[in-house]
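Lecture notes, part 5. Sequence design as translation. It can be helpful to think of inverse folding as translation between two languages: the language of shapes and the language of residues. The source text, in structure tokens, appears below.
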């Protein structure tokens, strides 16, 4: 007997129903959570090294981009990132040398560090620009010091002990943490005051101070000729400075008594 269409459909449905438990099990097996395996020590180290190399590469790319951006425009002292840093360095250096010595190790090291930070290491033109800026600054500092040497309204610089004189004239230049009475600064102060007495800019008789005809060029000659003196001559020069100071104080006291 032939089955009707309805009977055939029912038979097929029955077969599918019987097969469904197996299919359900297969589906469950397929979608079960796959167990997560912990990475080995070697794999962990490899991952760390890769991440480290990526960070270094990203940093190098960033530096390269910054360098290319900076060097796309000409160098200018007014806009460079180290202008203020260099200015403070030069002020402090001035109190020790009074004149710029470009070949000195201290100056060279600082300039190279500044140029490296902005990516101008190998540019001789930029180096010359920075040196020119430094020369100008030293000239400005000497002019400031000259005005300081002429001040005598509050305390006359001729009445001060040498260490006090040294502090007064170099305090505006020396950076925090450095001694105002270092050997270089103390010797500079002694040579400055000795020269001012010698050239009659300072007088020990109690009269006023005259810096009208003071010349840094002339003082430079005196400075260079005395800077390498042996220790015994430094001692004698300081003794002479003390005598001038005492003479000035006596003259001042006599004038006030009158």
């Amino acid at each position: 007997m032939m089955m009707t269409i309805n009977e055939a459909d029912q038979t097929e449905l029955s077969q599918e129903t019987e097969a469904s438990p197996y299919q359900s099990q297969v589906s469950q097996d397929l979608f079960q959570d796959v167990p997560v395996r912990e990475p080995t020590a070697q794999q962990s180290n490899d991952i760390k090294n890769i991440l480290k190399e990526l960070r270094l590469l990203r940093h190098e790319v960033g530096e390269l981009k910054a360098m290319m951006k900076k060097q796309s425009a000409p160098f200018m002292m007014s806009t460079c990132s180290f202008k203020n840093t260099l200015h403070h360095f030069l002020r402090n250096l001035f109190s020790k040398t009074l004149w710029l010595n470009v070949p000195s190790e201290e100056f060279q090291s600082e300039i190279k560090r500044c140029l490296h930070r902005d990516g101008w290491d190998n540019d001789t033109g930029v180096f010359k620009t920075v040196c020119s800026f430094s020369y100008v600054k030293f000239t400005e500092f000497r002019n400031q010091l000259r005005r300081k040497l002429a001040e005598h309204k509050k305390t006359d610089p001729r009445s001060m002990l040498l260490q006090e004189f040294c502090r007064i004239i170099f305090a505006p230049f020396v950076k925090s943490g450095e001694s105002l009475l270092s050997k270089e600064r103390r010797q500079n102060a002694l040579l400055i005051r000795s020269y001012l007495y010698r050239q009659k800019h300072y007088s020990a008789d109690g009269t006023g101070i005259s810096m009208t005809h003071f010349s840094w060029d002339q003082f430079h000659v005196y400075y260079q000729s005395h800077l390498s003196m042996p220790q015994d001559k430094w001692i004698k020069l300081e003794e002479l400075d003390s005598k001038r100071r005492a003479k000035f104080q006596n003259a001042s006291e006599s004038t006030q008594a009158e």
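The translated text above is only one of many valid answers, since several sequences can fold into similar shapes. Confidence is low (pLDDT under 50) at residues 1-5.
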